[in-house]
Design brief:
The protein is about 35% helix and about 15% strand. The protein is of the alpha/beta class. The protein folds into 2 domains: about 5-10 and about 260-375, Aspartate Aminotransferase, domain 1; about 15-255, Type I PLP-dependent aspartate aminotransferase-like (Major domain) (Aspartate Aminotransferase, domain 2, 3-Layer(aba) Sandwich), CATH 3.40.640.10. It has a 7-stranded mixed beta sheet, with helices on both faces. A 3-stranded antiparallel beta sheet has the order 9-10-12. It has a two-stranded parallel ribbon with strand order 1-11. Helix 2 (about 40-60) packs parallel to helix 7 (about 245-280). The two termini are about 25 Å apart. Mean pLDDT is about 95; it is low at about 325-330. The protein binds pyridoxal-5'-phosphate. The site of pyridoxal-5'-phosphate has 13 residues, from helix 3.
């Protein structure tokens, strides 16, 4: 049985307040949010609207700009493919970076088979793109820039506001994958020049299988083609009976994140700092990512010359990740770390520790002890 959980970037537990908010919508308030003729439906509809407000408040949007999906993978597919379907005949160039999540890279790769031109910007040793290189990548055909807010493997935070500004100066839209940043970093879609943005409940103490997509409603109003057609739910953008309990959970998670971010940041980053200070005393151990600009809960550490199998064995009963957990079906070295210039072997020897609300200093001490034994 795993006793220390340090894989919060893969998924988080549902916290009590979120679960409590959701439960009535499985039982008492089980209505269909599209049922317009009775109170069961109205109550469900009202709960969905409240969640729209809670999500919008977290990111500085308007409630009408939020639609619900099954998670970030779906939101990303809708943002990219939905936009491409509407505007692709006029503009068929998209700019992204090499360290994006596979939901972005594989969606773009599919578009490239249908006449789209994709520019994949390289990153430096800490995972940052070069803004000058971004500026020179635009053509008159550039439709959008897809850059994540914070990287899931290293926590590296991108200069979002500047990227959005550059995209707008070049008449392109900016889609930002904020799956890992939401709830940990302040986001204001207007200030940050973001036109579309996705979040996922299960990365912020909400349930799995529910997420949201923000779609700017004005200046410019963005039109997307739906990927899922049916009864015309959510302005015909994403048909299907709404997952009301899940949506309520996402809304509540956003409401809590809005107030908890600051305290969590202070407590959790202390744990991370101690872990890093202690582990980097070991020989040939270094940190991957931008230590000046990172999510407070994430560290990615390379234990050079130690095999992934040995490290995982040493960290008995500790849940960590080697590469991206979201694509753990894939045993290859992390595309993020390789893009940052690590060798395949260094990437394989790198471990992501992602902290959460319930971690303790005692757990950090135990991990340091386990890793020190591996080097004894
Ligand atoms: N984008 C990033 C940065 C992620 O970390 C993940 C999942 O880990 C996703 C997208 C996909 O999210 P979901 O699990 O909600 O589909």
């Amino acid at each position: 049985m795993t006793s220390i959980y340090l894989d919060h970037n893969a998924t988080t537990p549902v916290i009590d307040d979120v679960l409590a908010a959701m439960l009535p919508y499985f039982t008492v308030h089980f209505g269909n949010a599209s049922s317009k003729t009775h109170a069961y439906g109205w109550i469900a509809e009202q709960a969905v609207e409240t969640a729209q407000i809670q999500v919008a408040n977290l990111i500085g949007a308007q409630k009408e700009e939020i639609i619900f999906t099954s998670g970030s993978t779906e939101s990303i597919n809708l943002a990219i493919k939905g936009l491409a379907a509407v505007y692709g005949s006029k503009k068929n160039h998209i700019i992204t970076s090499a360290t994006e999540h596979l939901a972005v890279l594989n969606s773009l790769s599919k578009l490239s088979k249908n006449g789209f031109v994709i520019t994949i910007l390289p990153v430096d040793r800490v995972g940052q793109i070069d803004l000058q290189q971004l500026k020179s990548a635009f053509t008159e055909k550039t439709l959008m820039v897809c850059i994540m807010h914070a990287n899931n493997e290293t926590g590296t935070i991108n200069p979002i506001k500047e990227i959005g500004k550059i995209a707008h100066e070049n008449n392109a839209l900016f889609f930002c994958d904020a799956t890992q940043a939401a709830g940990k970093v302040n986001i204001d879609v207007v200030e940050d020049n973001i036109d579309m943005l996705c979040i996922s409940a299960h990365k912020m103490y909400g349930p799995k299988g529910v997420g949201a997509l923000y779609i700017r409603n004005m200046q410019p109003k963005i039109i997307l083609a739906s990927l899922i057609d049916g009864g015309g739910h959510q302005n015909d953008l994403r048909s299907g009976t709404l997952n009301v309990p899940g949506i309520v959970g996402l809304g509540k998670a956003c409401e809590i994140a809005l107030t908890a971010t600051w305290d969590d940041g202070i407590l959790i980053s202390r744990l991370r700092t101690v872990l890093e200070q202690r582990l980097t005393l070991l020989p040939n151990v270094f940190i991957n990512g931008d230590i000046r600009n990172r999510l407070y809960n994430t560290t990615n550490i390379c234990f050079k010359n130690k095999s992934a199998a040995d490290i995982i064995k040493a960290l008995k009963n500790v849940a960590v990740s080697n590469g991206s957990a979201c694509s753990s079906a894939n045993a290859a070295a992390s595309h993020v770390l390789v893009a940052m210039g690590l060798t395949e072997s260094e990437a394989q020897s790198s471990i992501r520790f992602s902290f959460g609300k319930s971690n303790t200093m005692q757990e950090v001490e135990l991990i340091v002890e386990m890793m020190t034994k591996l080097y004894a």
